[in-house]
């Protein structure tokens, strides 16, 4: 009786429910990402890509600039071509938006020779304003293909390889140095913050904390005459404690 009183809209969740369960089951594939933690090589590769993002963004900006330039050129050279093997009323160079989409399509290598033939049609039987192309089409498309496919793609690869060489291949690379220094820092932190479950450390222990580590993390006695000099350096580092006079791991590590 109760089910008969429910309308169709109230039973919608019964149809959505199984679909949602299927989606959640598919998301279980993400568990494979845990394998990354067990493979140092994969970790190094992913970290390299992360470190390369700023440089890759610059390369991507340059690529977008090239797309912009060739889209403008395409509008000037091939405007009015509306018919061909590939070109039609929707895929053409008649405005900047369509030209940009065509450049992106050409950059992927999809049917770009046929698009070039459509824009290179200078036969006597071509229809002006519809199928007549330009004799400069070959230069336009070949140069664009060479720049995007060979130059820019290799530039992306070069950036990633350069970052990998800088951060991992060299014996004295930055990542190895950071990991070694991090182990030293963690060891000293564990010693001085053990009374607070290694969560926080009293700011009064900072002088002894820095004395316990060698350079570049610590302050050696040869360079520091007394504890007052260490306190001055701590003030210059702008290490901030909470209201109870405790400093925390990340606050101290990244100063």
TrEMBL record:
<dbReference type="GO" id="GO:0098703">
    <property type="term" value="P:calcium ion import across plasma membrane"/>
</dbReference>
<feature type="transmembrane region" description="Helical">
    <location>
        <begin position="139"/>
        <end position="161"/>
    </location>
</feature>
<keyword id="KW-0407">Ion channel</keyword>
<protein>
    <recommendedName>
        <fullName>Ion transport domain-containing protein</fullName>
    </recommendedName>
</protein>
<keyword id="KW-0406">Ion transport</keyword>
<dbReference type="Pfam" id="PF00520">
    <property type="entry name" value="Ion_trans"/>
</dbReference>
<dbReference type="GO" id="GO:0008331">
    <property type="term" value="F:high voltage-gated calcium channel activity"/>
</dbReference>
<dbReference type="InterPro" id="IPR050599">
    <property type="entry name" value="VDCC_alpha-1_subunit"/>
</dbReference>
<keyword id="KW-0106">Calcium</keyword>
<dbReference type="InterPro" id="IPR005821">
    <property type="entry name" value="Ion_trans_dom"/>
</dbReference>
<keyword id="KW-0107">Calcium channel</keyword>
<keyword id="KW-0472">Membrane</keyword>
<feature type="domain" description="Ion transport">
    <location>
        <begin position="17"/>
        <end position="168"/>
    </location>
</feature>
<keyword id="KW-0851">Voltage-gated channel</keyword>
<keyword id="KW-1133">Transmembrane helix</keyword>
<feature type="transmembrane region" description="Helical">
    <location>
        <begin position="56"/>
        <end position="81"/>
    </location>
</feature>
<keyword id="KW-0812">Transmembrane</keyword>
<keyword id="KW-0325">Glycoprotein</keyword>
<keyword id="KW-0813">Transport</keyword>
<dbReference type="GO" id="GO:0005891">
    <property type="term" value="C:voltage-gated calcium channel complex"/>
</dbReference>
<keyword id="KW-0109">Calcium transport</keyword>
